[in-house]
Amino acid sequence: MKAVVYRGERDVRVEDVEDPTIDAPTDAIIRITTSAICGSDLHMYEGRTGAEPGIVFGHENMGVVEEVGAGVSDLKKGDRVVLPFNVTCGFCRNCENNKTGFCLNVNEGFAGGAYGYVSMGPWRGGQAEYLKVPFADFNALRLPEGEQHEHDFAMLADIFPTGYHATELADVGPGDTVAVYGAGPVGQMAAYSARLRGASEIYVVDKVEERLRLAEEHSGAIPVNFAEVDAPEFILDATDGGTDTGIDAVGYQAQKPDGEDEVPAMILNNLVTSTRATGRLGVVGLYVPSDPGAPTEEAANGRLLFDIGTFFEKGLKMGTGQADVKAHNRQLRDLIIAGRAEPSFVVSKRVPLEEAPDAYARFDKREDGYTKVVLDPAA
Predict the structure, then answer these.
(1) Residue 365: is it exposed, middle or buried by C-beta count within 10 angstroms (0-12/13-18/19+)?
(2) How far apart (Å, rounded) are the C-alpha atoms in residues 116 and 309?
(3) Separation of alpha carbons 131 and 146, rounded Å
(4) Helices (DSSP H) in 257-302: which residue ranges?
(5) In 3D, which of 40, 39, 45 has the Cα closest to residue 4?
(6) Are the CB atoms for 219 and 195 separated by under 8 Å?
């Protein structure tokens, strides 16, 4: 089959790889109908992780069941499903407690697994024609038949639940004010989720005007261009002392407005500044223990200059970590079906799988029209 294979820094190729097979009774094979390129993929694409050549990318996947193992009882051939990016067993302590982002059985020596991602286990990604799904009864979320809401449902694999998870970590409630740093797809979903949860004011910080317009249009957010104003000061002035909650949707590759220098802890420290005393922070922007391209030796080993003194002094609370997708995806699916949520507004382009290398290069350059690219293996 065809698949998107990582070959080195800024080098992905569409190559022939072996078809997936049923190796355990609980496996299923999915024919991929939509797979998305994620901002998290760019960390590997840019050589900013320990990813080795040969990884098949793709952790945002949906499709149709093609084959099931003898131990699969809840799925059958022809079922339309979306797959959480978390690979999970369903029966370990964390899975039983709905902490599926930290499964203890799918990735030796590490809590948590994912399709097609460095250090997240042996699971091949779904930017391909087919994908093997382990523990399929637990991992697959069944969808209505047909092709309706294809792009909306595809967002349930990662960015919609991740954005919603950020609002859970920050405990966003009705009437709260929220600052979202980063207006990429996850930041868009965090702002959108904050609106769904009843936030009264949402500030979205970025310097890409296309992204800021999108957040303003679909989430009612107040755009803050950090290339034009000091974002924390702007938010402090606008809120008379800071927002109730803050969300980091950027992570360790945060850049100064000129785009030349990286400051890995910049967003964390901006949140500490712009959030009121006793406020809550949700951090879903990626941070890693090893970064080959970090600006300092400390940052290369995951140790950042975080303003812990002010954080403590203000009595702030912080929740972190990758999303437990299964804690949210069923409810978010039902909001889509009911017409209450349309996360596909972030999708900017659908291209054939063969065009993935070009789409990666353009997304990496933040070109207009490449906010969120989805791949179509059947095109």
Answers:
(1) exposed
(2) 38
(3) 20
(4) 266-274, 297-300
(5) 45
(6) yes
Question: In the numeric block, which tokens belong to residue 96?
Answer: 């039983």
SS3 259: coil
Q: What is the rounded (10 degree) CA torsion for 180, 184, 186, 188?
A: 60
| DSSP per-residue letters across 112-162 | -EETT-TTS-SPPPSSBSEEEESSHHHH-EE--SSSTTHHHHHGGGTHHHH
What does each C-alpha distance from 315 to 276, 280, 312 come to in angstroms? Answer: 9, 9, 5
Alpha-carbon distance of 84 to 87, in angstroms, equals 7
For tokens 């609106």, the residue is 195
Over residues 128-160, the pLDDT tens digits come to: 999 999 999 999 999 999 999 999 999 999 999
Residue 84 predicted with pLDDT over 90: yes
Among positive and negative, which fits the CA dihedral 356, 358, 361, 367?
negative
Q: In the numeric block, which tokens belong to residue 160? A: 């919609």
Report the C-alpha gap between 320 and 364 in whole angstroms.
25
Which residues, in sequence order, are bridge partners of residue 275? 243
Which two three-digit tokens encode residue 71?
């131990």
Per-residue pLDDT tens over the stretch 189-232? 999 999 999 999 999 999 999 999 999 999 999 999 999 999 99
Contact predicate 287/322, CB 8 Å = no
Q: What angle do CA 350, 46, 133 make, to 5 degrees?
A: 55
Count Cβ atoms below 10 Å from residue 276 Cβ, excluding itself.
Answer: 19
Q: What is the torsional sign of CA 145, 146, 152, 153?
A: positive
Q: How far apart are CA 237 and CA 181, in angstroms?
A: 17
Q: Tell me which amino acid residue 325 is.
A: V
123: tokens are 């699971």
- The number of residues in the chain equals 379
